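#struct-help
A.M.: can someone run this one for me? Single chain, 96 residues.
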Amino acid sequence: MQPWKQAHFIKVLPMSALFTVLLYTSFLTMGHVSIATVVVFRNATPLLTAVGENHIRGEQFSQNSMVSLRLPPLSLLAGKSQHMHLSNERTHSVFN
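D.P.: on it. Structure tokens below:
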């Protein structure tokens, strides 16, 4: 294993600092935003990034990539409809 050189440290430091800031702001956000909101934005981020890459850089994606990018929104919709169905059943059983 080679000893660390200053050039290695300079390459790693910015990403380490950004990751630390990301973790810190994530912990601060948890006190103000519901977990469901965080999950929705976390699942939407790859799709938003892909749309941005397509429009800004003209990036083309394979069919497998397009299928995998469509899965999180579809699972979100399926989970939402299931949640609504279960909520309606609970409400109906409470009032009857």
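A.M.: thanks! The first helix runs from residue 6 to 30.
D.P.: also worth noting: The chain has a mean pLDDT of 79.
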